[in-house]
Design goal:
Blueprint (H helix, E strand, L loop, with lengths): L4 H6 L7 H24 L4 H11 L3 H11 L7 H9 L5 H17 L3 H18 L1 H8 L1
């Protein structure tokens, strides 16, 4: 999922003034995160929500506990290796946190990728429907 110039083209907002493009993309990213989070939380227990929040908040103790209980050999997992390569400029704790969050979703919400795609599609439709208003406010 890339929120960039291509995304702006897809939703008909490539005409936004340059100084407003980044702010719009940041706002869209935040909205996407909120909406995806709301959808993903449906059907999860309070315990699961607390556990996941601890992981995404990068609480080292929670990540360590979760990895020990659910993926003790995580360093040999191809997913962890891909994340490590992608985040090679970041410390190992960031790599472990990203891995734990992704793996947690795979286990507890295996449909999370579909949820992200669905929410993004809905958000795109909403933006397209309001494109003229957005462009009018930008000028």
């Amino acid at each position: 999922m890339q929120l960039d110039e291509t995304f702006l083209d897809e939703v008909g907002l490539s005409g936004l003034p340059d100084d407003q493009k980044q702010a719009f993309l940041q706002h869209t990213y935040e909205q996407l995160n909120v909406q995806v989070g709301n959808k993903l939380s449906e059907g999860l227990s309070n315990e699961q929500m607390v556990e996941f929040e601890s992981i995404i908040d990068r609480r080292e103790d929670a990540i360590e506990r979760w990895l020990n209980n659910n993926a003790p050999d995580f360093s040999s997992d191809p997913l962890f290796q891909r994340i490590s390569r992608a985040l090679s400029d970041n410390p190992g704790s960031v790599q472990r946190a990203e891995y734990a969050a992704t793996k947690w979703l795979e286990i507890n919400r295996p449909d999370y990728r579909n949820v992200v795609v669905s929410v993004l599609d809905e958000l795109k439709k909403e933006i397209v429907q309001n494109r003229d208003t957005i462009l009018g406010q930008a000028n």
